[in-house]
Design the sequence.
């Protein structure tokens, strides 16, 4: 006999978990399929995680609506940033902004990914209408009324809608032959955690140089930041092969006047960076969200926020369909969701590609254009406010 649900979500990462938790308030029976969710049961309080995300105002409000924001704040591991500083090494381009100048208390928050996952997981565990399965999905079929998802333990889950939230290499997307437009950014991201000589002072910093982009995301400890160093693949390999002292010296050479000397406090991880855009976000009884639908360069820290915006709009769409007694799995009822999310993702993909292209290399014309462009923005309060509002999703 099939196990019956309203919605099955394949993928229990940040976006998948958030979607399940938000949907639990719609009086639906939900299944989450993920083999690694149990790792979020405990949160090591003495260890800082390697990966962290910049959370904008829209995502913060979504966390509040779900009901985990107070728990996140009480963990003492949420760091607001009140200032941004962007500059070009060996160039004249620069941009800075402070939240107080625009009447905001902050410009966003930096939170370790495993902290967000922990509190979402705890929320899901306490929801009677969320069932978690730790077995891998191996097959899915569809008929007019249902999707049938088979797990590795032979269990068959039946639902009105399947949500693919299983990341950039989505099994759901591949199993349904949804093609993807891809472009290699020709960058790998080296990610780690560093202790900086100077306190971060709640400032998110980013430096562009001919071979890449270095970002410091301030963490809840005043001298610790998440480091995201995007650079050419061969240079990323070199950076990870350096000794800790050699790595720190190279980092100091490029950024030392802003943050001082850095000490590694976590191992270095490397991730290839690609732009991805699924040709379809929806099919009959299927929706793709988050990295399963799109991936972008991390240079503006908007990737996970795009995913949370997918989640929030999908939950709102499903709620409206239920209230009007419409089928939540029909393509015609999900078209508006797809249109809006494809539009926003395309805008962000285009913006990230343009910024990366403009700062790639040391061409004199490019250097002149980016200096003029960034300094015009930096000297225009109106332009800066509009950019900040867009980034904060206000």
Sequence:
């Amino acid at each position: 006999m099939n196990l019956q649900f309203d919605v099955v979500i394949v993928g229990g990462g940040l976006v998948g978990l958030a979607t399940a938790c938000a949907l639990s308030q719609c009086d639906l029976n939900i299944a989450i399929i993920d083999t690694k969710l149990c790792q979020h049961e405990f949160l090591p309080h003495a260890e800082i995680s390697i990966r962290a995300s910049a959370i904008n105002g829209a995502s913060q409000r979504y966390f509040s609506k779900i009901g985990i924001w107070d728990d996140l704040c009480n963990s003492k591991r949420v760091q607001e940033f009140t200032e941004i500083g962007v500059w070009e090494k060996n160039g004249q381009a620069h941009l800075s902004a402070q939240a107080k100048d625009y009447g905001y208390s902050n410009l966003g928050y930096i939170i370790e990914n495993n902290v967000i996952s922990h509190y979402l997981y705890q929320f899901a565990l306490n929801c009677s209408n969320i069932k978690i399965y730790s077995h891998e999905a191996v097959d899915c079929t569809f008929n007019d009324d249902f999707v049938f998802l088979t797990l590795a333990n032979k269990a068959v889950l039946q639902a009105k809608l399947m949500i693919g939230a299983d990341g950039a290499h989505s099994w759901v997307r591949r199993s349904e032959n949804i093609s993807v437009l891809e472009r290699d950014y020709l960058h790998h991201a080296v990610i780690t955690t560093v202790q900086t000589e100077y306190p971060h002072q709640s400032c998110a910093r980013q430096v562009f140089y001919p071979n890449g982009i270095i970002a410091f995301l301030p963490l809840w400890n005043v001298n610790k930041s998440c480091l995201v160093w995007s650079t050419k693949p061969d240079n990323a390999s070199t950076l990870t092969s350096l000794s800790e002292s050699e790595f720190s010296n190279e980092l100091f050479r490029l950024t030392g006047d802003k943050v001082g000397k850095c000490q590694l406090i976590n191992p270095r991880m490397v991730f290839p960076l690609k732009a991805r855009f699924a040709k379809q976000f929806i099919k009959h009884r299927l929706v793709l969200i988050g990295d399963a639908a799109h991936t972008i360069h991390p240079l503006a820290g908007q990737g996970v926020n795009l995913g949370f915006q997918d989640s929030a709009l999908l939950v709102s769409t499903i709620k409206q369909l239920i209230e009007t007694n419409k089928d939540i799995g029909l393509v015609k009822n999900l078209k508006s969701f797809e249109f809006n999310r494809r539009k926003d993702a395309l805008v962000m993909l285009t913006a990230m590609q343009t910024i990366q292209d403009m700062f790639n290399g040391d061409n004199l014309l490019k250097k002149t254009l980016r200096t003029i462009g960034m300094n015009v923005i930096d000297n225009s309060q109106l332009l800066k406010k509009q950019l900040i509002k867009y980034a904060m999703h206000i």
